[in-house]
Design brief:
By secondary structure, the protein is mostly helical. It is built from two helices and no strands.
Length: about 70
């Protein structure tokens, strides 16, 4: 194991979280544009954040095994 491996994993995790935040913001904007009320838009935003973060972490876990 190299010394830079933990730093790379932290960087990859930070990128995954930032990507998920962007996806959540887009989901919120689309929900509001559709005419949904704020609580409904936040609900869609949270679902999009959780789904995209789960997908990113699953990909990282699969890449880590190879």
């Amino acid at each position: 194991m190299q010394h830079t491996f933990p730093a790379f994993m932290l960087l990859a995790l930070a990128v995954a979280v930032l990507f998920s935040v962007v996806v959540a913001a887009i989901a919120f904007a689309l929900a509001r544009w559709e005419g949904a009320k704020v609580p409904t838009a936040f609900s869609r935003c949270g679902i999009a954040f959780a789904a995209s973060l789960t997908l990113c972490l699953a990909v990282f876990a699969a890449l880590n095994r190879t």
